[in-house]
């Protein structure tokens, strides 16, 4: 039996309104089996982590990503989203081989593990390679083959999407789950969108889609269908009896927010990507007040340039405070819950992860507070939300397995990833 004992840490469970306390965490066979003030190591205990000055919290969950786009980081910044996508990303992506996607995804995963992310939702191509990277690295992920329906491809994308689901759902000790991923309202006409929604409903597969990211998108959809993007999806019946993960949801009017009320799934807020692309401020406070689940993601490193969820946590809270001119909006504990348990709900894995609770999977991180910018220890939620960065995470654990210890990756080799990524990244963007 694999046993891990973490001793003497501040335990921040992220269960609503629970105050942090100091104690030990016992992990057996990938699950948290006990949390108490003092737990003695037994003979079968394999590993003991002395965690004085550390804060233990649930691993962060990145609810919207294209991990392999890490290969395109800092290649074409400061462009409008549609130019960025059409002129830079899509041509570079058209060159990507399966091996490129494997190494690109590992690059993204290395960054995620090193900044305290233990699960992510990914929409991309060559998803077999993404799944293999998830399997090899020990992280958890919800995977979907992105479906753009602009040209007839003889059903190839859809076949790949279904193959991913059949082959990888529940794989890697249950670390891999899958979704169906129509890309966005402006790349998916009504008929295929309706078909994918119906298929998702009949097979009870969650959906993952971009929504209302830019003003241009709103104008495009208005011109084509005389509807808002949210209305378009709603009228097609997508939200009816489907779990839907909506990425962005920046441009929603009050009626749109009403359309999302009571939906299964919810919104993945990507504040840094929205800021950097000048998209706008998503109506997070209104969505929350209507009871819509709001989690958090980074989007690909091609736009956000970093996969550090601590940057998203700060941006999310500060954007709402700025928007309302009110510092009481989106407080520390709530924004941390968005990056953990609320994101877990979007990935449909909240029964297993997202809080530190006995019986749940041991997906957790240790943050080293023995640093000037993390002292003193007044309110730990505030400290983590507003002062910590990904580089303060010193240990990352998924399913009870240590993926990073004292900032050293354990299962994957940074040297190898760096070497492979550098060569591939160069080839992908040559001449673009
Ligand atoms: N191009 C693929 C579909 C890939 S799905 C994931 C796509 O989302 C794209 N993407 C990344 N970030 C964003 C974003 O912020 N908005 C819209 N699309 C994005 C990304 O470039 C990638 O092409 C095909 O035709 O089969
Ligand atoms: Zn995206």
From TrEMBL:
Domain Amidohydrolase-related: 55-402
Binding site for Zn(2+): 64, 66, 210, 299
Cofactor: Zn(2+)
A GO MF label: 5'-methylthioadenosine deaminase activity
UniProt keyword annotations, A-Z: Hydrolase, Metal-binding, Zinc
Protein role: Catalyzes the deamination of 5-methylthioadenosine and S-adenosyl-L-homocysteine into 5-methylthioinosine and S-inosyl-L-homocysteine, respectively. Is also able to deaminate adenosine.
Name of the protein described by the UniProt record: 5-methylthioadenosine/S-adenosylhomocysteine deaminase
Organism this protein belongs to: Brevibacillus parabrevis
Gene: mtaD_1
């Amino acid at each position: 039996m694999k046993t891990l004992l973490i001793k003497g840490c501040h335990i921040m469970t992220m269960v609503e309104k629970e105050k942090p306390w100091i104690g030990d965490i016992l992990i057996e066979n990938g699950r948290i089996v006990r949390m108490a003030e003092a737990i003695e190591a037994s003979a079968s205990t394999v590993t003991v982590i002395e965690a004085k000055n550390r804060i233990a919290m649930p691993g962060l969950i990145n609810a919207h990503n294209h991990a392999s786009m890490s290969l395109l980081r800092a290649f074409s910044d400061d462009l409008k989203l549609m130019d960025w996508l059409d002129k830079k990303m899509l041509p570079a992506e058209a060159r990507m081989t399966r091996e490129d996607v494997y190494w690109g995804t590992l690059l993204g995963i290395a960054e995620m593990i090193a900044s305290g992310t233990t699960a992510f939702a990914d929409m991309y191509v060559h998803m077999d390679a993404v799944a293999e990277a998830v399997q090899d690295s020990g992280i958890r992920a919800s995977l979907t083959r992105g479906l753009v329906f602009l040209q007839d491809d003889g059903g190839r994308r859809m076949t790949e999407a279904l193959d991913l689901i059949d082959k990888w759902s529940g794989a890697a000790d249950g670390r891999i789950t899958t979704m169906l991923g129509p890309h966005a309202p402006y790349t998916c006409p009504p008929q295929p969108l309706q078909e994918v929604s119906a298929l998702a409903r009949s097979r009870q597969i969650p959906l993952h889609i971009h929504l209302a990211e830019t003003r241009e998108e709103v104008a495009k959809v208005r011109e084509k269908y005389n509807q808002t993007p949210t209305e378009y999806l709603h009228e097609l019946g997508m939200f009816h009896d489907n779990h839907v993960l909506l990425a962005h949801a920046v441009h929603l009017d009050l009626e749109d927010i009403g359309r999302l009320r009571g939906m299964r799934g919810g919104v993945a807020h990507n504040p840094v990507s929205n800021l950097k692309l000048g998209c706008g401020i998503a109506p997070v406070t209104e969505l929350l007040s209507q009871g819509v689940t709001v989690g958090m993601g980074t989007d690909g490193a091609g736009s956000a340039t970093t996969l550090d969820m601590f940057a998203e946590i700060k941006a999310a809270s500060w954007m709402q405070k700025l928007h309302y001119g009110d510092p009481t909006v989106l407080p520390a504990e709530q924004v941390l819950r968005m990056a953990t348990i609320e994101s877990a709900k979007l990935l449909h894995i909240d029964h297993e992860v997202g809080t530190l609770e006995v019986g749940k999977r041991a997906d957790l991180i240790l943050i080293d507070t023995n640093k000037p910018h993390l002292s003193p220890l007044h309110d730990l939620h505030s400290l983590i939300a507003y002062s910590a960065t990904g580089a303060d995470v010193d240990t990352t654990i998924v399913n009870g397995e240590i993926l990073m210890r004292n900032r050293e990756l354990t299962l994957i080799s940074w040297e190898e990833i760096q070497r492979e990524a550098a060569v591939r990244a160069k080839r992908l963007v040559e001449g673009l």
